[in-house]
Amino acid sequence: RHCTDIICCVIFIVVILGYIALGVVAWVHGDPRKVIYPTDSYGQFCGQRDTLNENKTILFYFNILKCASPVVLINLQCPTTQLCVSKCPDRFATYIDVQASYRYRPDQWNYFRQFCKPGFNNPRKSVAQVLRDEDCPSMIIPSRPFLKRCFPDFSTKNGVLTVANQTTFKDGRGKTRNVTDLREAANGINNVLDARSVGMKIFEDYAISWYWILIGLFIAMMLSLLFLVLLRFTAGVLFWIFIFGVIGIIGYGIWHCYWEYDHLKGIPGSDLTVYDIGFQTDFKVYLQLRQTWLAFMIILCGVEVIIILMLIFLRNRIRIAIALLKEGSRAIGYIMSTLFYPIVTFLLIAICISYWAVTAVFLATSGEPVYKVMANQTLCKYANLTCNPETFNTTNVTKLCPGAQCTFAFYGGEGLYHKYIFIFQLANAFVFLWLVNFAIALGQCTLAGAFASYYWAYRKPADIPLWPLFSSFGRAIRYHTGSLAFGALILAIVQLIRVILEYLDHKLKGTQNSFTRFLLCCLKCCFWCLEKFLKFINRNAYIMIAIYGKNFCTSAKEAFFLLMRNVVRVAVLDKVTDFLLFLGKILVAGGVGVLAFFFFTQRIPVFAQEVPMLNYYWVPLLTVIIGSYLVAHGFFSVYAMCVDTLFLCFCEDLERNDGSTAKPYFMSASLHRILGKKKLSPKKA
């Protein structure tokens, strides 16, 4: 063994160090509080400790009618003054009414002014000036906090939209308006609130049923192990039962078509042709024609003949595929630790996802507060221009645009770092894809090395090396990090291109340029196919790297040509393996799902008293079914890797050795018998 693809290894290490440096820089400049806490018009966080807003955790909008939708409120800035408040309004009130009654009802003014700008306490100021300068809101509406923002307390009564049981309100500008004026915001808010209510109930269901969910996943794990063990004895039986079942079903179809064809004999109109009756929207008309059933019968006969001929001519290859499946089950039985290696891959990928997500959040919140001119006058030429809140009052903007304010808009910046944040986000995504593919490649190479050590052991299991999985992992890290990184790099580039194409397609969905959308669709299809092909090549290249220790390009080339020389065997083995493993996943997920259904719906009398009271029984049920499928997929992915490794070793064994004393075969006795070898040749001492 020697180190392979050293240059790529060095580049990979440098990129990882650079990725760590990017995370540190993002951590220094970023501030996740910009995502967690809402920001008022002065760029201050609501609820931030050791500030004036420490006890003011909720954001209040002066005029929510100016906000298009809740999505705009959350993600963008609404064109109205926003303040941090300690609680949302719980009553209807207008500034006009409060100002008129503040002398004999000061309590109303004291309540209303907590939603005015801090320090404002001048009820004698004219209404026009107050509304122009936005010192106070023109009105307050009964609201409730959601996502740390005050939203109107919408509800429906007898199908009528209301706020605090009222259908109208005063807008503070001398008009009485209907609550339906807020319908656009109400619909979105109510949907979000309903989703929040459902989310809370789902969380409660998880909180009281997690124990039983884990039990269900444990049962799925045991069933997956049992299925893999039984494949040693039942792989052939399951496959042939399925094949003969298909042949029998097609045979029945042929008989039924003939029966319908014969039954329609003599019936008026049944001898017409499809051409005679033309196109009909009622397809039942075609079933009244003898010609239709004759065509069905001919098609089914052709399919039946093709399947039978394939079984006749490919019988030995099918037997080899089944023997390799059984051999894979036997190999896993000797190296049981391989079944739990997917946990290592899962942890590595989880670390990559976590680091990518945290870095992305810090990069997204790296900007400095950007302030823009917000003017009540639509013709103000300074509207939406950037401004400095510290010097804004000394400019002539307020004179040219009375009531204009310099308010917080978003986070950004004009510095060198801020200009390249988008590039940094792309780099973050690219390195994330590279690391994830490397983690997968490391797992495939490690498993391939362990199973290859089983195949090339002449006396099984006596010659299998000690701790084959750990030895294979050490070899992959020590010698082949560069090769694995090279393969992962190629795949990451293609995946990044696919992500960019998806982004462009999403942006161009509203356009009417058919040619552009057609071109994008073709590119997406081509790169999807390229990614699938590269995954296939990489997987087999990693197997050859684990066996021979050569570099990536040489291993990929040798694996590709070896597979091309055995292309029929590859096709047969691939389909047989896919079918049996898919059947296993369905059996595990379906079996555990049925058991979970009977349990959570209290249909098992023995455990009826143990079932927790749930809001939605389908929450733990779907979790168990999906989790069981993923557990089975994790175990069966190891099995699939085992079969692919044994197959490449088998093909290499046939080409390198001839079964003589000098070059004995390393394959199992069952494969020898299928190939027509009478017995194993004794190995030279």
Automatic annotation (TrEMBL):
Q: Name one Pfam family in it.
A: Choline_transpo
Listed GO molecular functions? antiporter activity
What UniProt keywords apply to this chain's record, in alphabetical order? Antiport, Cell membrane, Glycoprotein, Membrane, Transmembrane, Transmembrane helix, Transport
The UniProt entry lists membrane topology as: Multi-pass membrane protein
Q: Per the record, what is one GO cellular component?
A: plasma membrane
Which subcellular locations apply to this protein?
A: Cell membrane
| First-listed, main subcellular location of the protein, grouped into a coarse class | membrane
Which ranges does the record mark as transmembrane?
Answer: 7-28, 210-230, 237-255, 293-314, 334-358, 431-458, 479-501, 579-600, 621-641
Indicate whether Ribosomal protein appears among the record's keywords. Answer: no
Q: Which reaction does it catalyse?
A: choline(out) + n H(+)(in) = choline(in) + n H(+)(out)
PANTHER family attached here? Answer: CHOLINE TRANSPORTER-LIKE (SLC FAMILY 44) (PTHR12385), CHOLINE TRANSPORTER-LIKE PROTEIN 5 (PTHR12385:SF42)
State what this protein does: Choline/H+ antiporter.
Into which family does the record put it? Belongs to the CTL (choline transporter-like) family.
Q: What is this protein called?
A: Choline transporter-like protein
